[in-house]
Design a protein that fits this description.
single chain, about 300 residues, alpha/beta, 8-stranded parallel β-barrel, 12 helices, about 40% helix, globular, binds 3-methyl-2-oxobutanoic acid
């Protein structure tokens, strides 16, 4: 029989100087990774290394995502559905976004994380004027965001230019834009006809010219997003239901962990099915996006 050494006493959270609730990892293994910055994201895009993004809304999940190697954390207004139980993102306020952005930012700092933090400007906080957009963006940047995201094309071009000129990095969002779900008539694929795809492409080019350095493409046909990804030289496309050929991918955390009691959207893969921990599921997501095995166009795209 192999002799066993006496078990090490396990220190409790307070002896470690930690907190009893949701103790964060003492230091992210990613701490040795250089902080993710905008030039690094664009350099990844140029090299063809896939960019990984997940949503997170609180300190602990953000720290775990960072430790799993996720490069970009989106404090998405999808928190309206997954945290607040709303039917859409329309009811999310700027104060809600500030609260969750500050929570994520604190979690990342406590865990010595390195992720790039993107916060959604919620409905009603930027549509009125570019000045209103700047005021709202300032609230989120001061809460710890590195970049803000806003939805829509055409009228948003001027707003993006105004923000970027004033030092606020911007991620645009085209295709299915959930804040306008009532105008779109539901959560459906956008840019399916030639004319709709042409408008989407024109808007994407205008947003890039205005200075947007990232562009979320949600529920856009895979061939349209592949073409845009090639065409946009200074803007990294991030797909969700937009096929495998975007510069990066994003999923809503609760969806990819299978914590979704409703119908799972076609573009989601439940990474918990083959994982023994939440961090393991996130690591599997990072690996699958990086090696191109997720998403699969035949399964997850249109
Ligand atoms: O709010 C959100 O989580 C998003 C993603 C779905 C891209 O905008």
């Amino acid at each position: 029989m192999v002799p066993t050494s006496p078990a090490e006493p396990v220190p409790n959270a307070s002896e470690l100087g930690g907190t009893p609730y949701g103790t964060l990892p003492p230091a992210s293994p990613m701490a040795s990774r250089k902080p993710i910055s905008l030039p690094r994201i664009l350099e990844m895009r140029s090299r063809g290394e896939k960019i990984t993004m997940l949503t997170a809304y609180d300190a602990t999940f953000a720290a775990v995502a960072d430790a799993a190697g996720v490069e970009c954390i989106l404090i998405g207004d999808s928190l309206g559905m997954v945290c607040q139980g709303l039917h859409s993102t329309v009811g999310v306020s700027l104060e809600d976004m500030r609260y969750h952005t500050a929570s994520v930012s604190r979690g990342i700092r406590r865990a010595q994380g390195t992720a790039w933090l993107i916060a959604d400007l919620p409905f009603g906080s930027y549509q009125e004027s570019k000045e209103q957009a700047f005021r709202s963006a300032s609230v989120l940047m001061q809460a710890g965001a590195h970049m803000i995201k806003l939805e829509g094309g055409g009228w948003t071009t001027e707003v993006v230019h105004f923000l970027v000129e004033r030092g606020i990095p911007v991620c645009a969002h085209l295709g299915l834009t959930p804040q306008t779900v009532h105008a779109l008539g539901g959560y459906r694929v956008q840019g399916r006809t030639g004319a709709a795809a042409d408008i989407l492409k024109q808007q994407a080019h205008a947003l890039e010219d205005a200075g947007a350095s990232m562009l979320v493409l949600e529920m856009v046909p895979a061939d349209v997003s592949a073409e845009l990804t090639q065409a946009l030289q200074h803007c990294a496309t991030i797909g969700i239901g937009a096929g495998k050929d975007t510069a990066g991918q994003v999923l809503v955390l609760h969806d990819m962990l299978g914590v979704n009691l409703g119908k799972m959207p076609k573009f989601v893969r439940n990474f918990m099915l083959d994982a023994s921990s939440i961090r393991g599921a996130m690591e599997a997501y990072v690996a699958a996006v990086k090696d191109g095995s997720f998403p699969v166009n035949a399964l997850h795209a249109w």
